[in-house]
Amino acid sequence: MGADTEPMKLRLVRVEPDSGETEILITSLIEKEEHPNEIFDELYHLRWPVEED
Fold this sequence. Notes:
- The chain has one helix and two strands, in the order ββα.
- By secondary structure, it is of the alpha+beta class.
- It has one domain (11-52).
- The longest helix is centred in the last third of the chain and has 13 residues, at 40-52.
- The radius of gyration is 13 Å and the shape is globular.
- The chain starts with 10 loop residues before the first strand and ends with a helix.
């Protein structure tokens, strides 16, 4: 199907939103200094409506 088969580095980020549930997110933003864990809860919720379209 033409998909890239090369391995890629991914990062798992644990977030605990206000709901109290623990969520594990997967991202290709692997630079922890540039993208600290604290930003991912908000980023995830900003991205979700795009995924639902």
